[in-house]
Amino acid sequence: xxxxxxxxxxxxxxxxxxxxxxxxPAMADEPEPAEPPRVELVLDVSGSMGARDIEGRxxxxxxxxxxxxxVDALPETTQLGIRVLGATYKGENKKVGxxxxxxxxxxxxxxRSQAKDAVAGLKPTGFTPVGLALRExxxxxxTGATTRRIVLITDGEDTCAPPDPCDVARELAAxxxxxxxxxxxxxxxxxxxxxxxxIAAATGGTYTAAQSTDQxxxxxxxxxxxxxxxxxxxxxxxxxxSVCEGAPLLAPGVYTDREKFSEHRWYRVPVRPGQELRASxxxxxxxxxxxxxxxxxxxVATDGxxxxxxxxxxxxxxxxxxxxxxxxxxxxxADERDDAxxxxxxxxxxxxxxxxxxxxxxxxxxxxxxxxxxxxxGMPVELxxxxxxxxPTPKGPDLGRGxxxxxxxxxxxxxxxxxxxxxxxxxxATWREK
Length: 434
Hints:
Strand order of the largest sheet: 3-2-1-4-5-6
Signal peptide: 1-28
Keywords: Membrane, Signal, Transmembrane, Transmembrane helix
CATH topology of the largest domain: Rossmann fold
Protein name: Ca-activated chloride channel family protein
Pfam families: VWA_2
Order of helices and strands: HEHEHEHHEHEHEHEEEEEEEEEEH
Distance between the termini: 82 Å
Strand content: 15-25%
CATH architecture of the largest domain: 3-Layer(aba) Sandwich
Domain VWFA: 38-227
Number of strands: 16
Radius of gyration: 31 Å
Largest sheet: 6 strands, mixed
Number of helices: 9
Helix content: 25-40%
Number of domains: 2
């Protein structure tokens, strides 16, 4: 009879649960075979690269040596391409010179000798069409599941805008192709620094000033190696809503969205008894913002109660702000009933069929745009969601409960006082006898 009741309860739970959950949670894409990292080095070969101000050597010779060392140390799994700008046109016609960009090594498994020979013959020549070169490099890398990286090495700002290289970087970021541009500056010029910072920030990349051969070589190696640490698949695109009700239902996975300034984006995650929700969010600062900013991640109940507030999870990067949280429902059901054999049989006591708690995740930001900064599209948001078995709570004396702790401290004090008094009396009696 008991087995029959349990079977009926389980069947009822299986029928009712889908209706309570509503739509099926969005699933992150299934893991796919990892693609090899893809990187393209973009080298400025304009006339200014002939300046001899790095350790008494020309900028182009320093870059060529760095390229050779990077190619020698290139991981076998990395696919590398090389594109140049300002390398062939020697004339004064700006319209023609600003189209001067070529891919001299196609993206793919590297023939080291071919790559070195291609770079060795470069001589400082023409204009500096950085924006066009970035756009062409993105096409060279193509699309796919993994993040692509462009490493731009230049000594000057773009002399051919439009297209403005910052606008091109924002354009590439808005396409959602997970393209990162890292920039390396070879000249101590403030305008160049600002432009390269802008390009890097728009795509979640980094900017570095390289003033020596070792600095340039080491930094390029680091950036090429970093390509192997990127995602092996693209996060699932999801659109958060303005309220909890009707927000996207998320299963464990990695998701990407966009959020405007001072906006709140809502998502929902079902969490069953005995499970723990772990979530983190990163917002990329792909445009200029004022320094007084922050990101907040909260878990909220469907009735509006705040369950837990996330904490900052700094990564050390100035172009990304992150936060994370953990939450589990450790409340024991007050309506638990036991069968004649002492085992619970209701749906409310079986974690496999009990309706899960619907938790609303809220991503908020307090970013303030600088004057002239575009609000659209929103800033890139990456949300990671996981639901795991909750960590067991240690059993034993509940030292965290007020009255129990007070009682234990009182008993401990009495025992300590009694022992201290006995020892004191014994010591005094012994001393007097002497």
